[in-house]
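Sharing a chain and its predicted structure for anyone who wants a worked example. Both blocks are below, sequence first, C-alpha cells second.
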Amino acid sequence: MKILKTLLLVAVAVVICGCSAVTRTVYLQDAENNSAIKAVAEEQIRIKPLDRLTIVVSSKDPELAAPFNATSSYNSLSSNPMGSSTANGASSLQTRTVDENGVLYIPIIGNVYCAGKTRSELSAEIAQKIKNGGYISDAVVNIQFVDMKIFVLGEVERPGQYDITRDHVTILEALAMAGDMTIHGNRQTVTVVRKEEGKTKSYVLNMLDTKMFESPAYYLQQNDVVYVQPNKYKAATAEINQNRNFWLSIATTFLSVASLVVTILAYTK
C-alpha cells in the first residue's frame, strides 16, 4: 500500500512539473481558435544613415541609363569612392553609402534624402526625378540593400548574425533563423535593442501573449539585436554549478596543502 501511495505521489509530481514546463515554453498561450488578433501594421525595413545600397537605373536605351550607374566607361582611370566597376568597361553593381545625414548622392541628379524611406519609395522618387529632369522617360530604378543584418543572442540554439533578404522580417522569423529558443530561454522578456534617431532603445516582448503582435519591435529593422534572457531555472543552475566549482576548488586546495604538510612532517621525523 505504501509503494502504491509513493508511486501516486511521484506521478502527481511529474504531471505538475510537466504543466509548469508547458506554461513556461508555449508561445501565444492566450490565442483562441479562429479569433482575430490585433497587430501592428506590416512594416517594411526603412533606409537608415550609413546603410549601403546598390542602385541600378535601367531603360530601353542602355546608353541613356549608363551615366546614372557610374560604370567604368565613365571613370575607368580613377578610383570611385561611391562604388566599384569592372576593368573592361562593362556595367557592375555600384555600392553607395547613405551618409550620416541620411543623404545619398546619385550621379547626374545629385543628392537625394532617403533616410526613413523604403526601397520602393526611394526607387519611385529617383525614377521620377530622372523623368522630371528630361533625362529618361522610361527610367526604372532597382535598389537593393548590400549587407542588411540582424543579430540574435542569448538562449537560442544558434546565436549569431543573420542576413535579411526580404523587405520585412518579424521577431518570430528571426528566432526561427536562430533555431528557436532553448528550453532555458525566458519567453516573457525577449528584448529587441534598436538604434533610432541617434538613440539606443529597447523593447521587451512577451512571447506567451498575443499582444506581442502590437509591439513596434514585432517587425525588425536592420542591425536590430534580439536578446533572449535565461530563465530563473537556468540562472539558478548556473549559480549552483558556480558554487559547486568554487567549493570543489577550495576542497582540492585544502587536500593539496594537507598532503604537503603530511609529507613535510614525515620527512622531518
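Comments welcome. Residues 102 and 115 are 5 Å apart (CA to CA).
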